Structures are given as C-alpha cells and as structure tokens.
C-alpha cells in the first residue's frame, strides 16, 4: 500500500525542464504553496539551468537524482519521449512516489505500463500556470487515491483552475485549453496590428489588445453569463461593434477557431496512437 504524502512537506520533481515545467514551478512558488527549495529538476543546458535556479529550484544533472529526491514526480517532457523517460526511470519509480504526466496525448494505461504501477495521475494544464491562471483537467490512474487526487488538485489549483474529467475527454481538452493560449496570443497580436493599422502607436495598441482580452475573459468567468449575451451588450444597432463582427463572420471567424480546436484534438489522438 502506498504511503500517503504529507501535504505540508512533500518534495516535487520535474522530469523535463522546458517551458511547461517552468510555468508550473514558477506558479507554485509564486502562490506560496511551497518554497522553491522543495522543487527540483534536471538539465544540462546552461540557459535552462539558469532559468530554474533564478527562482531557487534545485537543478540536478541526472533525472534519476530528481526521482530519488522527490515525493511527487511530474513528467513534463515532449509526448514523443515520454515512453523512454518513464521506462528508463522505472527502477526508481516506487509506489511511494506519486507520478504525474502533463504530456499531451499519452494515455494512463501506457504510462502505468511503462512505470510498472498505476499510482499515476494525468493532468492537462496550460502555460498560464506561470501567472496563476492555468486551465487544467485531471484524471486519476487505477492506484491513485482520492488523497493523491486532492494533492494534485491543490498543486494545480494554486496555479489556476482545475477540473476532473474522464480521460476519454483529454484529446478535446488538449485541443481547447492545452493549445488554446496560442490561439489567443495570435488574436492579441492581430488586434494590436489592427490598432496600428487604424493609427495607434504600437505599444498602446498591444496594451489595449491584451487588456481587452483579459477583461472580456474575466467578464465571461465572473458573471457566468453566456458569451453571446455579453457580445450583444456591446453590440448596438448600426454601431461600430456590429460592423466589426460582420467582417469577422464574413471571414469565418468562429468556424476557424472551432477547426483549430478539432485539429489539435485530432493531433492529440494521433500522438496517443504513435
């Protein structure tokens, strides 16, 4: 039987020291959930070592050292190398360690097989974890307890919002919230470019675009009103907003966003089958 992890003193390790791991680690430290001294990772690239050490995370030279020194181990490597990463570390992945994967498209049944046990939790977060605004979804493996789930919910809840869902929904989750920030960054950039085209200075246009997206998202989440109702509130008869929306609809704006989500979800399914 796995030993419960003490929530006030556990150590957290990241296998993979890329942008996602850094975003989650920074968000956790910023939230005050745990000090950086209880977080560790491994890398041999000077820039990645510097990125983590800059806010107090211990960086080892070997992944094995990370696993041995961690109670909770988060695999945050690219989907294409998850199998090798988990398999190589299998001798050190005892049931006393809670294992987590944030890799897109990699199923729990495969993770559990590679690790040699089922105390695994799959999480699909996104990079806004770095500023405490992640949208994450989790699904528990066969041997992961409710206490394990509560701990992971606490960790990822400190860097945004987290929901539980059946794993069969994860490809769609990946296509929407996992990849979604990139779609929004494109929208912010395009809005700013539109502002420049209309005569605004670049810095003001970018600031206005970013704050507008933030404000609109806050309205949707905090009021609980349907986005269509919020859109109608801004759209006066014969006004400026309806003229802009008309152009968006002529360009297939909503259909393009829907296609982006479904294309990313399809790619997630392909990764799980490769």
How do the helices and strands line up, and which of them pair or pack?
Elements (H helix, E strand, L loop, with lengths): L11 E4 L3 H13 L7 E4 L3 H8 L4 E3 L2 H6 L3 E4 L6 H8 L8 E4 L6 H8 L4 E5 L9 E7 L5 H12 L2 E5 L5 H9 L1 H18 L4 H22 L3 H8 L5 H11 L2 H21 L1
Parallel strand pairs: 1-2, 1-4, 2-3, 4-5, 5-6, 7-8
Antiparallel strand pairs: 6-7
Helix pairs in contact: 4-5, 7-12, 8-9
CATH class of the largest domain: Alpha Beta
**Averaged pLDDT, please?**
93
- The overall strand count is 8
Helix-strand topology string: EHEHEHEHEHEEHEHHHHHH
CATH superfamily of the largest domain: NAD(P)-binding Rossmann-like Domain
Give the count of helical stretches. 12
Biggest β-sheet description: 8 strands, mixed
Poorly predicted regions are none
| Architecture (CATH level 2) name of the largest domain | 3-Layer(aba) Sandwich
Beta-strand content bin:
5-15%
Shape: elongated
Organism: Dillenia turbinata
Catalytic activity: L-proline + NADP(+) = (S)-1-pyrroline-5-carboxylate + NADPH + 2 H(+); L-proline + NAD(+) = (S)-1-pyrroline-5-carboxylate + NADH + 2 H(+)
Subcellular location: Cytoplasm
InterPro entries: 6-PGluconate_DH-like_C_sf (IPR008927), NAD(P)-bd_dom_sf (IPR036291), P5C_Rdtase_cat_N (IPR028939), P5CR-like_CS (IPR053790), P5CR_dimer (IPR029036), Pyrroline-COOH_reductase (IPR000304)
């Amino acid at each position: 039987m796995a030993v419960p992890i003490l929530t006030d003193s556990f150590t957290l390790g990241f296998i993979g020291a890329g942008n996602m791991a850094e975003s989650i680690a920074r968000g956790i430290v910023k939230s005050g959930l745990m000090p950086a001294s209880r977080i560790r990772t491994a890398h041999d690239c000077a820039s990645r070592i510097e990125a983590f050490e800059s806010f107090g995370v211990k960086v080892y030279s070997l992944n094995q050292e990370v696993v041995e020194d961690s109670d909770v181990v988060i695999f945050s490597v690219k989907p294409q190398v998850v199998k090798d990463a988990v398999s190589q570390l299998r001798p050190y992945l005892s049931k006393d360690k809670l294992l987590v994967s944030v890799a897109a498209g990699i199923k729990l049944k495969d993770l559990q097989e590679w690790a040699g046990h089922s105390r695994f939790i799959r999480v699909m977060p996104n990079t806004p974890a770095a500023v405490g605004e992640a949208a994450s979804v989790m699904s528990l493996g066969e041997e992961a307890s409710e206490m394990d789930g509560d701990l992971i919910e606490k960790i990822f809840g400190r860097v945004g919002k987290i929901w539980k869902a059946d794993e069969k929904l994860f490809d769609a989750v990946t296509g929407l919230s996992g990849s979604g920030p990139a779609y929004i960054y494109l929208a912010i950039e395009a809005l700013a470019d539109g502002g420049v085209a209309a005569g605004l200075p670049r810095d003001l246009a970018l600031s206005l675009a970013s704050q507008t997206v933030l404000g609109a998202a806050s309205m949707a989440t905090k009021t609980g009103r349907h986005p269509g109702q919020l859109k109608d509130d801004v759209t006066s008869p014969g006004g400026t907003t309806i003229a802009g929306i008309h152009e968006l609809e002529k360009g297939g704006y909503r259909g393009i966003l829907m296609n982006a989500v479904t294309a990313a979800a399809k790619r997630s399914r392909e990764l799980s089958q490769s």
